Amino acid sequence: MTFRVRFESSVRSCVLLLGTMGLIAIGNLSADSCRAQVPASQPGAGPALEPIDPVHDFGKIVEGTKVTHRFTFRNAGTMPLEIIRVAPACGCMTVGEYTKSVGVGQTGGVTITLDTSRLLGAFMKTVNLVTNDPTTEIHTFTVRGDGRRLVEVSPTVAAFGRIVADKTRENILTITNRWERPMTISIGEMRRAAPFQAELLETIPGFEYKLCVVLRPPFREGTLSGTIELLTNVPGQEKFTVTVSAVALPRLETLPNTLYYGGAASEADARSGDKVFEFLNHGSKPVAVKDVTCDDPAVTFVRKDVEPGFLYRFQVRTPKDYRPPNEGRMVTLITDDSERPKIEVPVRLVGSTKAPNFVAPASAVTPATTQKAEVKPVMELVGKPAPQIALNTGMGMPVTNGEFARYPATVLNFVAPNCPYCKKQIPWVEKVRADYQERGVRFVNVGETMGNKAFTFDEAMVVMNQLGSRLELAMDSGNANGVRYKITSFPAMVVVGKDGSVVEALPGARETNSDKLRKTLDGLLAKEMGGK
Fold first, then answer.
1. Residue 155: is the preceding peptide bond cis (ω within 30°)?
2. 494, 412 Cβ separation under 8 angstroms
3. Phi–psi pair at 33, nearest 5 degrees
4. DSSP notation for 289-357
5. Helix 264-272 to helix 512-528 angle, to the nearest 10 degrees?
6. pTM of the model
7. pLDDT tens, position by position, 124-165
8. Long-range contacts of the stretch 274-277 (C-beta < 8 A, 24+)
9. 333 vs 167, residue with greater confidence
């Protein structure tokens, strides 16, 4: 009896022991099976490039020197990092030695050399590293700086801006010598600068001078421009020029000076309202408009005395689809001015004259093929305050957010001189400019860099002149302003209202954008007149 109890107790102990061992084994087997079926998560698996210094600022650099920098990065991944290709975005940059393979946790680098021969003013250039990083295949590194000359002229142009042709005006530029030796300087040839006179004054012998440019009446109305040649003993700048410019306004004028009806422009008017013209007095004494009439009784006017004696705005009311006769009609302003008591504004039918702002009839326009609209980043700006912009045109006129309030609308046309699509867009933009600039709208071509070619202002102007563009031109060094405006392709147009907000964004070269632009501008001009 005792033996059987002890035996059964021993058996139960063995069974319990074996059962426990089996559960442990099964438990271990189950755990190993789960690990085999569901691999452990490994964040950062594969190679991963981590920039150590993605942006380098050279600061102020003397133009023409070559500067070098080595960008560094580390492999923060779990596999070797391969640098497949290094691609600079500018022909002014060359690539030197770079690390082709970087082990896990190791660092590498790429050396670039920048030729600043054509980099004057603030600049920004990039270099792309094409890698086997599965998360981000292309990594961008940036260099920036401020190109300075041994001889600096500030401001760079003698721009008198918009003036009235009745007073003597003076513009003083400072010429600074940053060379280690004293400079000798003299005035050479002056081209197309008949109304301008120039004189050099030495303020710090050999190192600082004042260039005094004087504009004396009488001179003709319109755009006045020329160049002043300066001769020095400074290497690389033995001869350079300073541009002088002014826009001489007539004392009294109307904008536009002719009203056109018929054709595509008229169709846009019919959609959005009536035409508008202004009487402007640029003189110092007020001139009152006593009456406005037209020899066609179907034409009536709504008058707004914006600044009595100096600015009057007239909304021209006509029947729908109004077309004047071939011989035209005449709007007449009666003023209290002793020299010009009567000012006339012709009313013409499109096609009846070879006027500068001739608009082709709608039948002559080739209809564009229907395309699916593509949403571009720049279109996200519509309805929002315009991003910051800080540029100067070649005439020295500022293009800034503060300037938007001076115009009922500002058209910023972001283009690259070597862009084939821009060359298709620019001619139709010029047609729109010819119709709306005289109504107060400002048009600016913003010159961007595409590819390896960085155009100078003069080079870009040659292209614009060949295309017949008469827009103001401002070069955007390093595309810094274009980036703020989310410009990812060229051309791209942004319309900014008087309140500084973006009203329309028109990317692409499609001529159908012309009608959209006209409709937008007509709406802004009508709003300026007090309409809705």
1. yes
2. yes
3. -65, -40
4. EEEEEESSTT-EEEEEEEETTTEEEEEEE--TT----TT-EEEEEEES-SS-SEEEEEEEETTSS--TT
5. 50
6. 0.42
7. 889 999 999 999 889 999 998 888 778 988 887 788 877 776
8. 274/315, 274/316, 274/317, 274/318, 274/526, 275/315, 275/316, 275/318, 276/313, 276/314, 276/315, 276/316, 276/439, 276/525, 276/526, 276/528, 276/529, 277/313, 277/314, 277/316, 277/331, 277/345, 277/439
9. 333
Alpha-helical runs (H) found in 142-199: none
Radius of gyration over alpha carbons of the chain, in Å? 35
Q: Read off φ and ψ for residue 346, nearest 5 degrees.
A: -65, 145
Confidence of residue 11 (pLDDT cuts 50, 70, 90): very low
Q: Which residues pair with 131 in a beta bridge?
A: 83
Q: Where do we find the tokens 């729109």?
A: 432
**What are the CB-based long-range contacts (under 8 Å, 24+) for 133-140?**
133/46, 133/47, 133/48, 133/49, 133/77, 133/81, 134/46, 134/47, 135/46, 135/48, 136/49, 139/49, 139/51, 139/54, 139/73, 140/54
Question: Could you tell me the two tokens for 253?
Answer: 């004028």
What is the mean predicted confidence (pLDDT) over 426-440? 89
